[in-house]
Amino acid sequence: MQDQSEEALERKRGNRLQTWGLIGTAIYAIILIVVFAMGPRYGWITLGPLDLNELGDFLAGVFGPLSIFWLVLGFFQQGSELRLQVTELARSVEQQKELVGVSRETLDHERQLQDMREAARKAALQPRFLINCATVRNSVGGLIANVRSHLIEITNVGHSVSGVTVDFVPVPSSSSDYSRPYFRNGELWKLELDYYDREIPTRGTMRIGYSDEDGTRHEIDYSYVGDGIFDLNFVEQRRSELSREGS
């Protein structure tokens, strides 16, 4: 706003100089006409034949003041134009700064959109496990007392994954290899856990590891709480991304 007012002031100053120049030229021309018209009559000047060099000196003397007048006006006019150029250059610099700021905001916005699209793409590659658990056998007595078997059913309702492993803490009494090369969408995986006597847990952790389609390794931790008698209830606690396979 201040730059615009300064520019308008400089333009007015330049127009004023031109006006003064035209007025001064008109006044000077009137004076010359009056002098040449009335000068010989009143004896102010004497007109006669002139040589070419004398005619040149005469014209230089007549129009010299006017030339100096316009030279001075041109000096001030040039200064005004230079100030206008400085103002326009400063405005151009400010506009360039604004364009840079807009470009940076656009790039940041595009980067955020790209990050959101990448996060959505990665989320679409992740599985979703539904876990059900029930006690299928509860043996009491014999050489090994209180053998309890839990049947855990895991259904993948998300994206298909590979290299799936399942680990339990505490470790089941009947140690088994809970792994499979692929766990596709819609498949059901049944795991049987056996705990003996005092090893029967009331709480623990189940960790499912897998690799997604990008080859990135992930782990999901589920905590479970049992009533000490029958079922185990699983709740997802944490998801973690480990690393890309081969890196």
Kindly describe this structure.
The longest helix has 73 residues, at 52-124. With 247 residues, the chain is α+β, with helices and mostly antiparallel strands. The protein has two domains: 2-123; 129-244, Sandwich (Immunoglobulin-like), CATH 2.60.40. The mean pLDDT is 80. The protein has helices spanning 2-42, 52-124, and strands spanning 129-139, 147-156, 161-169, 179-183, 188-196, 203-211, 216-226, 232-244. The radius of gyration is 49 Å and the shape is rod-shaped. Strand 7 and strand 8 (232-244) form a beta hairpin. It has two helices and eight strands; from the N terminus they run ααββββββββ. The strands form two sheets. Strands 4-3-6-7-8 form a five-stranded antiparallel beta sheet, with no helix packed on it.
Question: What share of residues are in beta strands?
Answer: 25-35%
Number of domains: 2
Helix content: 40-55%
Q: How far do the termini sit from each other?
A: 57 Å
Biggest sheet architecture: 5 strands, antiparallel
Largest sheet strand order: 4-3-6-7-8
Shape: rod-shaped
State the total count of DSSP E strands. Answer: 8
Structural class comes to alpha+beta
Q: If you compute it from the alpha carbons, what radius of gyration comes out, rounded to the nearest whole angstrom?
A: 49 Å
